[in-house]
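Hi U.,

Before I forget, here's the chain from the pilot set. I'm dumping it here mostly so it's searchable later in email.
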Amino acid sequence: MLTTMRNNRNTLGLRLKELRGDRRMSQADVAQELVRFGIETGQSHISNIEQGAKLPSVPLLVALAQMFDVSTDYLLGLSDRPRPARIAYASVPGQEVDQLAQLLSLLSEEQRKALLSVAEAYAYRNLVRRLLDQVEAIGGVAALEETLRSLDSSLAPSRDDARGDTA
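Structure:
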């Protein structure tokens, strides 16, 4: 499991760097753009994620996925599909789509924003459920926490190294 987490960490960093490059964004640009999603972070944190030195928090992971319009599964290397399959409009009768569009046009800008907020909250709830299912699949929160502690301790310099002591 430790190897899988390291591979996911590397995949996350590579995919984040690739997505950032596709949009010609610097790490500082990403950190600044994350403020729109309610995330306060700096360029060095984005750099640490890209290098595999740190894992993002769940809210940061979700915000990155939203920013780059990809799934969290893709960012984490659990899927090679950047976006989950979407329901094709062809599967919804045309008359229903037209009626929905007509109803939406009757809403004020404020009402449309409120409806969008509800839809985003619903999507976020479903995303959190999927993440929790994945955590459960790898043995639950305790197993995930132990893996993260092991990774952090293997990546962090020892206290003696930090003080400059040598053996």
